[in-house]
Amino acid sequence: MAEKLLIGAEAIAAKGWLKAHQWLILRRVSQLSILFLFLLGPWAGVWIVKGNLAASMTLDVLPLTDPHVLLQSALSGVVPELSAIIGVVIVIAFYLLVGGRVYCSWVCPVNMVTDAAAWLRRKLGIKASSQMAQSTRYWVLGLTLILPLITGSLVWELFNPVSMLFRGIVFGMGMAWILIVGVFLFDLFIVKNGWCGRLCPVGAFYSLLGSRSAIRIVAAERDSCNDCMDCFVVCPEKQVIKPALKGAEKGIGPVILSANCTNCGRCIDVCAKDVFQFGTRFNNLKVNASGKQVDGEVQRHAVQSE
What we know:
The chain has helices at residues 9-15, 22-44, 67-75, 82-98, 102-106, 110-124, 136-151, 155-159, 161-171, 176-190, 194-199, 201-209, 230-234, 241-246, 266-270, 297-305, and strands spanning 49-51, 55-58, 62-65, 215-218, 277-280. The chain is mainly α. The chain has a 3-stranded antiparallel beta sheet. A two-stranded antiparallel ribbon has the order 4-5. Strand 1 and strand 2 (55-58) form a beta hairpin.
């Protein structure tokens, strides 16, 4: 088999099952709670949140707008309302702080589908059968912004699995099942972490938005690493780990600075040595063991060269 089946077994033995899954549990609570708040209105008539993940109003006071959707709308010729613009400013401010791709791991319901595919892939020992460049998602992102200019409509939103899954949960899945099952099978049999890591333009957009965000995963205890490789197995963007974890001799700081890190916390969960923790990008301003100051730029170049 390509990968170990008992990923995180050492962490469970060292920390207990709950602590070895704490960030995974919190992510599921976050994702399901957000869905529940949206569903309370149409299902129970309790309108705490109105709208959907593209645009919503909480308690008739707080507007939130997906900047990717608003940008598509503007490119299609729609003049945004003031509340939509305020909602975008709030969302952008939030993701500039916590990291754009936090949306992918803490909000997006499709993440639960792709995580399930990744889990089953490990259980079945399925090897990746195809390769796809990580840059593909940025080409798809570009396409989602060009099409509104050409067609005058939000073409991507007609096929967006996030939008379709949300509508399906509220109004009945219908044909949405085909797309969601397709995403699951694509990740399971064709490309490992293929949808979120190679194709999804929403993740690509948020990675650009949060590229300078403050909150980051830090390999604070990287000297304690025993090379079990569990973090690399569970990470949906494993290429982001190596510079921070193994770059001390090159003067690379312990902070994962890559914009593609989703801050999901699974590397924290599965590490028996507690190598990883949440911190900030400013951890790289500390002086390393050789007495050289780490400014983060070295690590950024290392990530880009991976």
